[in-house]
Design goal:
Elements (H helix, E strand, L loop, with lengths): L4 E5 L5 E6 L8 H10 L10 E6 L2 E10 L2 E7 L5 H18 L5 H6 L1 H11 E2 L2 E2 L4 H4 L7 H6 L27 E14 L5 E15 L5 E6 L2 H13 L30 E5 L5 H7 L2 E3 L4 E10 L7 E9 L3 E10 L6 E10 L5 E7 L3 E5 L4 E10 L3 E9 L6 H9 L2 E8 L8 E7 L7 E15 L3
Main location: membrane
InterPro entries: Adaptor_comp_med_subunit, AP2_Mu_C_sf, AP_mu_sigma_su, Clathrin_mu, Clathrin_mu_CS, Longin-like_dom_sf, MHD
Organism: Porphyra umbilicalis
């Protein structure tokens, strides 16, 4: 990827920030962008990639729109468009950390800092330091004042070192690392009860409070790691993968019970701190973590998932009244509990005088969203709960509006702790640091409802 220039334009196409890195883009490039993106008709479908072909040569725009601004990258080479988009979004994150809101007035007020950030984040069109924690050590809003009084700011080693996302000399009184395995279940069920779509979106979120420059090694029970471990063990005359002395298991560390089954992950994405070469070699995840919270890894599984919370609704509509009979049951393992279950059921837009009777939890009418919400604080596995609701109905009403209300699906929210629907488990989490301190790793599993919909018809 080689970016020739970065422009920040206002809503009218006027240039607020212009930084050329390679000197191969004509000065009228923002005018070409304005003509092809900003001045086009509203019915024209806009894309984040725009190609310009001129007699003097061709180049490409890659841009994102934020509030009333256009953040534009220009390249004259066949660059990686996805990486350029990722850099622009990272640039927005960095600017947001220096300014409360990235708007036209804040860009004008902080243009000196923005130019300094661009010079540090990119060199000859190639991204360099992009971590806010590192940039904030030597670029501040007071940098010009410090230079005026002769204060020398020392450049941190992370700006030029291999670990640009972590500063040196970090100290914590209590060395701990927390790993959250969070999975969202997306489910779409038809009115007849058949499963139309199901997928699992997962991520591993790390909160690192470790001193020094620690090296972490993480093992999962995904299929690729198990296959690699089994091959290595068989080559050495062993019998496949085994446990580890530093395994993080159940009990006090919030883990889920170990399982022998492996999980085949798809669309795996890693944080930049992960050593990809080592992962490709032996399928282990090793990394030097940034300080604080970050997303280590994300993945997707497109597999058939049994709905964890099942909802049946029977609607009986009469001339002046409509009654609802709603049954909900959990399809979890015996020890699991679904917390904060919220079942959103659409109701007709002109109902009144709501009355509810629940075997557990509470129900309420939300007129601004034309729905009733049944809230169950704890829903244990194997239980079936019933809610009856009734509404008054005017004798005169718009049939089209009432018919559309019945087409809206039931949506469900819930959270199941200590459980992953995919079966993904952490086999071990090692922490190694040169000073030899003892670190405490903690692992937690959470399954949440994502786009969880059950159609009525």
């Amino acid at each position: 990827m080689a970016i020739s220039a970065i422009f920040i334009l206002d809503a009218r196409g006027k240039t607020l920030i212009s930084r050329s890195f390679r000197g191969d883009v004509p000065p009228d490039a923002p005018a070409d962008f304005k003509a092809r993106v900003i001045d086009v008709d509203a019915d024209v479908i806009a894309t984040p990639f725009v190609h310009v072909r001129k007699a003097t040569g061709s180049y490409d725009f890659v841009y994102v729109r934020h509030t009333n601004l256009f953040i534009v990258a220009v390249t004259r080479r066949n660059g990686n468009g996805a990486m350029m988009l990722a850099f622009l979004y990272k640039l927005l994150d960095v600017l947001a950390s220096y300014m409360r809101e990235v708007r036209e007035d804040s860009v004008r007020e902080n243009f000196v800092v923005i130019y300094e950030l661009l010079d540090e984040m990119m060199d000859w069109g190639v991204p360099q330091v992009t971590e806010t924690a590192v940039l904030s050590q030597f670029i501040t809003q007071k940098s010009k004042i410090a230079a005026a009084v002769g204060t020398l700011q020392q450049l941190p080693g992370t700006a030029t070192g291999a670990v640009s996302w972590r500063a040196e000399g970090i100290r914590h009184t209590r060395n701990e690392v927390f790993l959250d395995v969070i999975e969202q279940v997306n489910v779409l069920v038809s009115g007849s009860g058949s499963l139309l779509r199901s997928e699992i979106l997962g991520k591993l979120v790390v909160k690192s409070y470790l001193s020094g420059m620690p090296d972490l090694k993480l093992g999962l029970n995904d299929k690729l790691q198990f296959d690699a471990a089994a091959a290595a063990a068989l080559a050495a005359g062993g019998h496949g993968p085994s446990g580890d002395d530093n395994d993080v298991d159940g009990g006090r560390r919030g883990g889920a019970p170990k399982k022998g089954k492996s999980v085949e992950l798809e669309d795996v994405k890693f944080h930049q701190c992960v050593r990809l070469a080592r992962f490709e070699n032996d399928r282990t995840i090793s990394f030097v973590p940034p300080d604080g919270e970050f997303e280590l890894m994300s993945y997707r599984l497109e597999t058939e998932v049994r709905p964890l919370v099942w909802v049946d609704a029977v609607i009986e509509q009469r001339q002046t009244r409509v009654d609802y009979l709603v049954k909900a049951r959990t399809q979890l393992k015996a020890s699991a509990v679904a917390n904060n279950v919220k079942i959103h059921l659409p109701v007709l837009p002109d109902v009144d005088t709501p009355k509810f009777q629940c075997s557990s939890g509470k129900a309420k009418y939300v007129p601004e969203r034309d729905e009733m919400v049944w809230h169950i604080k704890q829903f244990k596995a194997g239980r079936e709960l019933v809610m009856r609701g009734g509404f008054g109905l005017p004798s005169l009403g718009e049939d089209a509006a009432r018919e559309n209300a019945t087409k809206r699906p039931i949506t469900v929210e819930f959270e199941v702790p200590y459980f992953t629907v995919s079966g993904l488990q952490v086999r071990f989490l090692k922490v190694v640091e040169n000073s030899g301190y003892q670190a405490l790793p903690w692992v937690r599993y959470i399954t949440q409802a994502g786009q969880y919909e059950i159609r009525l018809t």
